[in-house]
Amino acid sequence: AGEICLGTVDSWLLWKLSAGQAFATDYSNAARTQLFNLQTCDWDPQLLELFSIPAAALASIQPSAGLFAHTVAVGGLDAGIPILSMIGDSHAALYGQGGFAPGLVKATLGTGSSLMTPMAGPIASRHGLSTTLAWHDGAASTYAMEGNIVHTGAAVQWAARLVAG
Length: 165
Known about the structure:
Blueprint: H1 9-17, E1 24-26, H2 27-30, E2 36-37, E3 42-43, H3 45-50, E4 60-62, E5 65-70, E6 82-85, H4 89-96, E7 106-109, E8 113-119, E9 130-136, E10 141-149, H5 152-164
Parallel strand pairs: 1-4
Antiparallel strand pairs: 2-3, 5-6, 7-8, 8-10, 9-10
């Protein structure tokens, strides 16, 4: 009693798959909480104070690839399966599509859409785009800039209805 854990979907899944043995997130997911400082690559003490969030309640932040935990026998999974990576969805798409250098762009279209490009550092956008930490490999951070469209799927359905009459 009296304990609370505050995390993202990945940290909750890790907690459940490890039966509470691990409570962690990676840098890409931490960067999306609005509680993460892109300059220090850690939870921002000023923001935690502003929102009255105790740092001890937050997931530990780890590189995107590396051993997070091992599964317990749950939901049909065998015990002892290593959980070796966690990364945000758009960030994983950028990595998986080879977006390793500034100037390369990935586009993901679905219910929502995302355009993301790697950046040389945490550069602030003057055009309403989000600056994020794309991934951290244990030695260095890769930053990115992203533009999101939240209603792509609904817009396609709307256009299809217009065309169909």
